[in-house]
């Protein structure tokens, strides 16, 4: 018998968002790790808020909402607030009841910006790694490093001379035509009026130059989890400087190995790593010059292992850009973009944990 297409409503509902989430859903494992990390961050949250005045959005709920945005690739916070209204999975993960009102997007954004003051994103990344269930998954001896381009939220038309001598577009209007042929532009003479901290940069020869930032991650080699993340302005030496800073922070006593591609093969960088007590497992770049890595390093079996495993560092970059929606940032300014990049790195670790914890 064919059923009838009738919409029936009930006067009362006794279901909660949690009852609608399957017991074996991977977000249940993730949420338990997230809640434990947020509990460890509670003293830091208290320092960011005054003990007096009206209560704001709980920082724990803010971070859970931003993680949901990263997990499901929600492209904007306005769309996130819209989906929280009717998505029970989102409500359960964030910690909202069935009939709890959803925040206005402007209020949500202003409260989110408060978390920038305390570098909460990096603290959250480290709090997740400090979980007793997560710690055994990490290597404390072998690491890999790499960087990637994060496109800025600015168009090439915004890249104008610093002295204000730019000519007006020939075609009037909101987005008029502009011919850049034959015009020499560089970061020394030009600057984006939309995002002044973005820099014109290209990753390699034959690639187009774009207004962008550089995102860097430090990965441990046991399970490929990110242990540190940093965002810098796009320069030719930023990757090597960020690698030295991150490995010095993560392993201040040295005695570790660091795998990297041939872009890190310079005499100065290799010497700096050795001064830090780090063994540089850097790929040899023998094009038009001698490599700074010689047989003293390459003869060891660990060098070949590091070169094989370091390629896994492309996996978090791929996830952050494709699934996490961070190929081009929707934010402006190095501080805000860097905060969001670090939170995406923490989100990548979290989506890996259900499978990793199931095998332990």
Automatic annotation (TrEMBL):
Residues 160-198 are annotated as: Disordered. One of its GO terms (molecular function) is DNA binding. Residues 17-114 form the Transposase InsH N-terminal domain. Residues 203-350 form the Transposase IS4-like domain. The keyword Endoplasmic reticulum does not apply. Residues 174-188 have a biased composition (Basic and acidic residues). InterPro entries: Transpos_IS5 (IPR047959), Transposase_11 (IPR002559), Transposase_InsH_N (IPR008490). Transmembrane segments: none annotated. Keywords: DNA recombination, DNA-binding, Transposition. GO terms for biological process: DNA transposition. Involved in the transposition of the insertion sequence IS5. Belongs to the transposase 11 family. This is IS5 family transposase. It comes from Lichenifustis flavocetrariae.
């Amino acid at each position: 018998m064919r059923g009838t297409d009738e919409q029936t409503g009930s006067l009362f509902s006794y279901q909660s968002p949690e009852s609608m989430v399957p017991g074996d859903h991977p977000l249940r494992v993730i949420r338990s790790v997230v809640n434990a990390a947020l509990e460890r961050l509670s003293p830091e949250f208290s320092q960011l808020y005054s003990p007096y005045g009206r209560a704001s959005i709980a920082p724990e709920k803010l971070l859970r909402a931003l993680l949901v945005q990263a997990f499901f690739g929600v492209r904007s916070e306005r769309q996130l607030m819209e989906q929280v209204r009717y998505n029970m999975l989102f409500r359960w993960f964030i910690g909202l009841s069935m009939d709890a009102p959803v925040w206005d997007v402007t209020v949500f954004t202003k409260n989110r910006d408060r978390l920038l003051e305390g570098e909460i994103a990096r603290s959250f990344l480290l709090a997740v790694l400090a979980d007793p269930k997560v710690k055994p998954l990490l290597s404390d001896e072998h690491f890999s490093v790499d960087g990637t381009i994060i496109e800025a939220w600015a168009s090439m038309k915004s890249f104008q001379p610093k002295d204000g001598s730019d000519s007006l577009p020939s075609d009037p209007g909101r987005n008029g035509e502009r011919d850049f042929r034959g015009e020499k532009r560089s970061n020394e003479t030009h600057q984006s009026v939309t995002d002044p901290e973005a820099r014109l940069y290209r990753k390699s020869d034959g690639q187009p130059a774009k207004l962008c930032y550089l995102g860097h991650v430090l990965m441990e080699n046991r399970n490929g989890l990110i242990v540190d993340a940093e965002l810098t302005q796009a320069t030719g030496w930023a990757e090597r400087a960020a690698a030295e800073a991150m490995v010095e922070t993560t392993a201040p006593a040295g005695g570790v190995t660091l795998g990297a591609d041939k872009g890190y093969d310079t005499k100065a960088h290799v010497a700096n790593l050795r001064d830090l007590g780090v063994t540089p497992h850097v790929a040899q770049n023998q094009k038009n010059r001698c490599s700074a890595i010689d047989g003293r390093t390459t003869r060891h079996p660990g060098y070949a292992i590091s070169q094989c495993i370091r390629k896994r560092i492309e996996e978090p970059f791929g996830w952050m850009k494709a699934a996490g929606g961070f190929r081009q940032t929707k934010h402006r300014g190095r501080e805000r973009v860097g905060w969001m990049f670090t939170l995406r790195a923490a989100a990548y670790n979290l989506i890996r944990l259900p499978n990793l914890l199931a095998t332990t």
